[in-house]
Design goal:
Layout lengths: L6 H7 L6 E4 L3 E5 L9 E5 L17 H12 L4 E4 L15 E5 L18 H14 L1
Antiparallel strand pairs: 1-2, 2-3, 3-5, 4-5
Cofactor: Mg(2+)
Protein name: Adenosine 5'-monophosphoramidase HNT1
Catalytic activity: adenosine 5'-phosphoramidate + H2O = NH4(+) + AMP
Length: 135
């Protein structure tokens, strides 16, 4: 499944050039053209879907092994694997993609805030019960 208007689907088809690092029947990986650091790459399923929940499980099986290989070959000692879903979660391209972003120092690579919430054990236990019952 692909989308005629999707930039990543066009990259997969070769209509838009890319610095392709890996390709299989289900996965495509290439260098990000607006990198946060040297070696920043994207790993995408060839199956078109905007969010992770839109992609069949069998189309996701190679994603993390490929991201792991990219991290190894980049030489990154520290790195982030990032996958965003939806605009308010910072997704810009509506095709599932995983970033492998080397973090060579404090200024290069991914910079994030982590606004933790105060722990409420009763609320956490209720949420746990709710989620566990749906697994």
């Amino acid at each position: 499944m692909s989308s005629a208007t999707c930039i990543f689907c066009k990259i997969i088809k070769g209509d838009i050039p890319s610095f392709k690092l890996f390709e299989s029947d289900k996965v495509f990986a290439f260098l990000d053209i607006q990198p946060l650091s040297r070696g920043h790459a994207l790993v995408i399923p060839k199956y078109h879907g905007a969010k992770l929940t839109d992609i069949p499980d069998e189309d996701l099986q190679e994603i993390l092994p490929v991201a792991k290989k990219l991290a190894k070959i980049s030489g990154a000692e520290d790195f982030n694997i990032l996958q965003n879903n939806g605009r308010i979660a910072h997704q810009v391209v509506d095709h599932v993609h995983f970033h492998m972003i080397p973090k060579p120092n404090e200024t290069e690579g991914l910079g994030i805030g982590w606004p933790t919430q105060k722990t409420d054990m009763d609320k956490l236990k209720a949420l746990f019960e709710e989620l566990k019952s749906k697994m």
